[in-house]
Amino acid sequence: MLSEQGLPQDVRLVLRERIRDGAYTTHIIRLVASILGIAGAYAVADSNDPRALNLAVWVGYVYGACSLLLLLALWRGFSAGAVGLVTVVADTAMITAFSTTAQYNPSGWYEVMLAPVYPALTIVFVLATLLQYSVVASLLAGLVSALARWMLLEYAISRPGVVTGTVTNWGPAQIGLDDQYVLLGVIFVTGGVTATLGRQVRSILLDHATQAVRTRVIERQQDYLRRYVSPQVAQKIIEQDDEAALESTKRRVAVMFVDIRSFTPYAAVTPPEVVVDFLNRRFTEMVDVIFAHRGTLDKFLGDGLMAVFGAPVELKNPGHAALEAAADVLAAVERYNRDRRPGEPTLRIGIGVAVGEVVAGNIGSLTRREYTCIGSAVNLAARLQELCKDLGTELVVSPDVLADLPGPPRLPLRSVPGIRVRGLSDGLDVLVLGAAEPSRVSSRASMEILRRDASPSGTGGFMLGVEDVSGIRPAPAIPEVPADPQSAPRRSVTKAPTTGSTGSSGSGIV
């Protein structure tokens, strides 16, 4: 017997749902059978005794009402297995009572025991227990039906005037006991065969339930994954075996941080629903771009986001994919600023991109985890994004990204040497979009500002400090990384309105 013990909860629920559906079907069939039985009794009323007709009609009504009550019990949540066992008893009682109606006809008890319709009905209703997907119900149906038929036989041959013999005789009428015993055996064996078939059917049903659950799980996984990766990447992860694809591993990836500049002041004076709608629309555009370049959305960070290229699905040139995505994000921002609706703020962002080895995997607590990356490349990309405002640019890239480019970059990048980045002991040569603009360099005392290193070591690099930047100029002799003239978008740089040489102000997000 196939037990539900040891089955996953989801599989048990699906299996019970299918069994309940089968129970509903069988009871609807029984309701139809009771209606057809009543109609059949009236159809042959002329050839039957009126008492036989009345009893047959009442049996039909009672059986129909019983089937309706059992159907209601299922609808109210009663166990399909328990209702199925009661149904077996109801079927046997109905067939037995229906058989006895023929005693009032001219052939009397000979018709009760010899008419083929009654044992045929018994076998049909035993077979109907297949729809209950229960071995117990099928075995019980065969046993109870054979027992009821045997009791009916004993009662019939005890009636006065009933002649019995070894074989059946129709003229003069004689009930053949051997034939009746064979019929009892056939009914009982039918129950056993039905139980065997029921076991096979239940096994098939279990496989179907398991597959249905697996399909649901896959659909949930795909829905979950598609929030963070493109549909193509999500499908590849599912096909590769999600556990293997998302296991902890070291990967060479490109990490991109995007931040909307000066968003907090805007949010402070704007209705919450407007703020959320603005962020949702901007993030939707950015995430679509990331997915288009086979990137993974790692997380949203308030008014920014973190994306990874090369995990969980490996990319040959993750730096190239990240830089292409950055170019498209900047193009989307430019389109927004050109086409923005009245009352919407000007949008300015900062993007940091770094390439390096990270640890990628499901990280978190026992109750909540998320797929993310940790490592120096993540920290560096975040620091480079922070430098965007200090350097007066929208994009700062680590030099390792160039190794992944198949040709000239789409964007005009310039190298800024010797930048001291928080967390690094040595200066770092970085790539920035266009030339650093002094009028857009932050002058807040709490910010780290670029100044020339005047230390006795004479390294000639830049270091991070705090000073008045009214006279700061871009580093001399900054070499330019030429952009691809075919693919580089035409960009116009619009400076934010400034007050003095060291500060900036405006009504938009700057």
What is the gist of this entry?
With 510 residues, the protein is α+β, with helices and mostly antiparallel strands.
What does this structure look like?
The chain has 2 domains: 213 residues, no CATH class; 273 residues, Nucleotide cyclase, GGDEF domain (Alpha-Beta Plaits, 2-Layer Sandwich). Strand 7 and strand 8 form a beta hairpin. The two termini are 71 Å apart. The protein is rod-shaped. Strands 4, 5, 6, 7, 8, 9, 10, 11 and 14 form a 9-stranded mixed sheet that branches. It contains 13 helices and 16 strands. The chain is of the alpha+beta class and 510 residues long. The longest helix is centred in the middle third of the chain and has 49 residues. The C terminus is likely disordered. Helix 5 runs parallel beside helix 7, helix 6 packs antiparallel against helix 7 and helix 11 packs across helix 12. The relative contact order is 0.07.
What descriptors fit this protein?
16 strands, alpha+beta, 510 residues, nine-stranded mixed beta sheet, Alpha-Beta Plaits, 17% strand, 49% helix
Low-confidence regions: 436-481, 487-510
Q: What is the helix/strand order? A: HHHHHHEEEHHHEHHEEHEEHEEEEEEEE
- CATH class placement of the largest domain: Alpha Beta
Q: Largest sheet at a glance?
A: 9 strands, mixed
Distance between the terminal alpha carbons, to the nearest Å? 71 Å
The count of domains is 2
pLDDT averaged residue by residue: 77
- Strand-pairing-aware structural class: alpha+beta
Count, helices: 13
Strand content: 15-25%
* Residues in helix, %: 40-55%
CATH homologous superfamily descriptor of the largest domain: Nucleotide cyclase, GGDEF domain
Architecture per CATH nomenclature, i.e. the level-2 architecture of the largest domain: 2-Layer Sandwich
Radius of gyration: 41 Å
Number of beta strands:
16
CATH fold assignment of the largest domain: Alpha-Beta Plaits
Shape: rod-shaped
